[in-house]
Structure formats: structure tokens, C-alpha cells
What does this fold into?
Amino acid sequence: MTSFLARALMLSTPLLFGATAEVFAQRSGVMITAIEGVFVMGAWAGFVGSYLSGSHLVGLLFAMLAGLLTAALHGWICVYLGQQQVVTGTAINILALGVVAFFHRVIFGVPISPLQVVPLAKIDIPLLSSIPFLGPIFFQQNILTYLMYLMVPVAFFILFRTSIGLSIRSTGENPEAVDVAGINVKRIRFSMVLLAGLVGGLAGSFYSIGYLGMFTTNIIGGRGWIAFAICFLGNWNPIGVLIGTLVFGLAEAVAILMQSSGTGLFPNEFFIALPYIITIILTITRKSFNVPASLGIPYNKEN
It folds into this structure.
């Protein structure tokens, strides 16, 4: 049971990163529909950086840079050119898959066996890791999962207890009023998109160097979209996002457990699809959403 719950918590990590980043961007009025592409670029760049340098730190920095650049493209087109956010994000997602497939072939050719790196090591927190039951679950994780523990309280504090958070939320609700107050709406929105890219790239790198230790073009497998959905299901609130990510982490852990146990009660494809089935069910059954009033609407300052 402790191993199962520890894995569920670990698998929640990238989803929490991605969904929290999406909360900040969407609270400012921009949907990062390119989140799948940001995850893919982060996973690939993180692997390449770690493999070529032998350093996980370099890999994580590469991942954040790749996520930043991908999000910057999305932000420039949507925020400054005022283009449709869903269409733009979809195009960037497709572009990202092509880019990583092409450059992976250019850099590594066609290897006979999959290239691998050693995944991020688990770090035992002294004393805390020895606590019965709770210790192995919460305090025998890798560095990214430990960062996840800080993500929710820090994000909540910034978003709801600071003037910066007020400006972000106001930009997503009433950008005209923010503009009248002398705050640059496009600058705030673009900054939040860049922040989402940094964090989303880090989330993507979790799959390649934090968990699997390898990269394939289908490594993300729609999990960026799950993080996108969690932002909605969590009602654009870091606490709601935390609950959502834990649910999906449990679903992924169940899927892995059932596939490895080989019970034969259901086909493996059912368990692979389980997190996505839960996404659809929760989205359909959710009765109301507190959607930011200007979400997805480009802002053009009136003369």
C-alpha cells in the first residue's frame, strides 16, 4: 500500500506543475492550449541535456528553456497578435511533435536500443522518512516531488494574498479596468504565459528524466491536456488543482498496478485509458465553472 500511494503521489507531480502553471496563465486571460507541446518540448530537452552532459541539473535547465521558448511563441501569437488561442495552441502542439522527432533523429540518429539516463534519485529526508507509513509515501521522493509540496501554498499565497496576484486575476476578469489603472495588460498576460512555459517544461522533464529515464515522441501521451483539464476542474484555484492532481495520480497508479498484475479482468487498454476516462466523466458531471470573464479573449487597447 505504501509503495502504491508513493507512486500515486509521484505521478501527481507533473500534473500539479502543469495545472498550477495553467491556473496563473488562465487567471490572466490566456489559455495555454499549447501545454501538450510545452510538455513534449520539456521532456525532450530535459532528456537531451541530461544525456549529453551527464547532469540532471543541466537537463532540468534545458527543459525549462524549451518550455519557455514554446510558450513564448504561443504568447506572442495570442497576446500580441491577438490570434485565436485554441487554434494557435493546437498548431504549436503539432509543431512540437515534429520538431522533437526531427532533432532527435539529427542528434542521435536511429539507435539500435533506446537511449537511457539514470532517473532522478529518491532523496530520503532524515527522520521524516522513518515515520511509519507516512515516511515512505511523502519523504522518500525525488526533488521534483518535494518541489510540488511547496507549489500549492506558494501559488495560493501569490494569487490571493498579494498585489501581484490581484493584478493577475483582475487582468483575466476586467482587463479594461486594469488598463485604466495604468497596468500593462499584455505584459502581465505574456509574463504569465512565460511562467507557464518554464513550469510546464519542468513538468515535461519529469517523464523523461524524473521517472522513465528515456524519451519517445509519445512519452507525454495527452497528459498535458489532463493538466489543462485539471485547471478547469479545480476551478482555477491551486487547492482545487491539488485535489484534482491527486485523483489523477491515483488513477495512473491504479492503471500501472492493474497492468503489471495481469488479472485479466479487463484489457490493458482500459487501464491505459482510465485517467482520460476520468477526465471526461468529471468534466461532464461538473455543474458550474467560475470561468475568468475574459478568458480566451484578446485584449486590444482602445484609442
Summary: The two ends are 62 Å apart (CA to CA). The chain has a mean pLDDT of 92. Residues 185-212 form the longest helix (28 residues).
